[in-house]
Design brief:
The structure is a single chain. It is built from 15 helices and 14 strands. It is an alpha/beta fold and 404 residues long. It has 3 domains: 2-96 and 117-142, Nucleotidyltransferase, domain 5 (2-Layer Sandwich); 148-242 and 279-404, 2-Layer Sandwich (Nucleotidyltransferase, domain 5); 244-278, no CATH class. An 8-stranded mixed β-sheet has the order 5-4-3-2-1-6-8-7, with helices on both faces. Strands 11-10-9-12-14-13 form a 6-stranded mixed β-sheet, sandwiched between helices. α10 packs across α11 and α11 packs across α13 (343-350). The radius of gyration is 22 Å and the shape is globular.
Length: 404
Amino acid sequence: MKILVLNCGSSSIKYQLLEMDNEQVLATGGIDRIGQSNGEFKYSSILQEKTSKTITIQNHEHGVELILSSLLDPLTGVVKDKKEIKAVGHRIVHGAEAFIGSVVINDTVLAKVKECASLAPLHNTVNLKGIYASQKFLPDAIQCGTFDTAFHQTMPQHAYMYPIPYEYYDCYKIRKYGFHGSSHNFISKVAAKTLGFDYNRCKIITCHLGNGASIAAIENGKSIDTSMGLTPLEGLMMGTRSGDFDLGALLYLMNKESKPNETIPELLQRTDDMLNKKSGMLGISGYSDMRDAADSADAGNEKSKLALKMYAYRVKKYIGSYTAAMGGVDIIVFSGGIGENNVAIREVICNGFEYLGLDFNTERNQTARGVLKEISKPDSKVKAIVVPTNEELVIARETLALLE
C-alpha cells in the first residue's frame, strides 16, 4: 500500500511516498520558497538520483500538483496511476485539546483544525492548504492528520497549566501544548529498543535540536512535560526564537521601543517578529544557522562563542529539571539537525552529568552525521544516544493504522 506524506510549512513542502508493505521510501523531496520567482523543487526516487530545479511555485496547491506530476512521470516516477496512492498523511501542527491522536480527516476535523489556527496561524493555515490540494488532486485517497501536539496530551494538568488567572484557560484554553510530538514519539521508542529498555518502564529525555528545538520528559511511555508551550516560542533558545524570556523585561522593552502614533496591533506585530524571527542564535551571534555560528566562533567572534554557550547551557538546564521531575533518567536522546550532527554541542551538553550517572564517551561521540549510535560508555548507568528522527515515517505508520 502506497501512502504519501505531506509536511507543509509557510513557504515549503516536504514529502515522502512510502510503500508500507516494507516501509520503503519510493520517493522523497521538498519544495522551498513558494510564491517566489526562485522557488526550488527537489525530487529523488528509487529510479532517479536527487535532482533540483529552480521554478516559480505559485502556491501550495501548485506545489502539490508538481509533486504528483513527478511521482507520475513516465520515466522517473514511481506511480503509474494516482489511484495507487491510497492515503495521504498530513502533518498538522496544532490540535489543541481536540485531538489526542491521529485522525481520518472529515468536515468536522477540518472545522476543528480551523479553530486551532488561532493558536498557530503560521502553521495550521498552510497545513489546511496541503489538505485541500490533496483532496482536489487525489479525490480517491483517504486524508489523515497527525498532530504535533497529540503526543503531549498525556501531560498532567500541573505540568501544562500556566500560573495566570484560571479564567483564561476556561475562555481561551491558554496552556502548554508542546510540539515536535511525532519526533519525540519516534526517537524515544527507537532509543529504548536499541538500548534494550522496556519503553513502558523507563525514563527518557528526548532532545529534538534543530532550528526549532524542544525537549520532552517521557516517563513509562508517556510525555509528562515538554519545553514548548502554547506556541513554539517557549522553551529553548533556537535559531531565530528567543525561547524562555522574562515577561517583565518584555513589557519594559515594548514600552521603551514603542513609536509615536504606533497602534497597539503594530507594536504587537513588531514584538512578535522580534521574538520569533530576530532572536535566538541570530539575535546574539548574527547567524541563525548553528554551522555558521560555529565557524564564526572558531574564527574568534566573541558573540558567536557566547551564543553557543547560551544554547548548550539552556539545553543542559532543561535536562536537569526534567531529571528532577521524573526522579531520575535512564536515557538521554539527541536528534534533529543539530542534535544528530553537531558533535561539539553534544559534548558540551553532556559533560558535567557524571553526578546523574552519565559516563560520556568522547570517542564514540565523533560519529558520522545522522547515524544511530550510543555515545555513552558501555557501563554508564545513564545512556546517551543519537537517533536520527523520521517524522514522515511516524505519520505514514499512523495513517496506515487508521486505514487498518
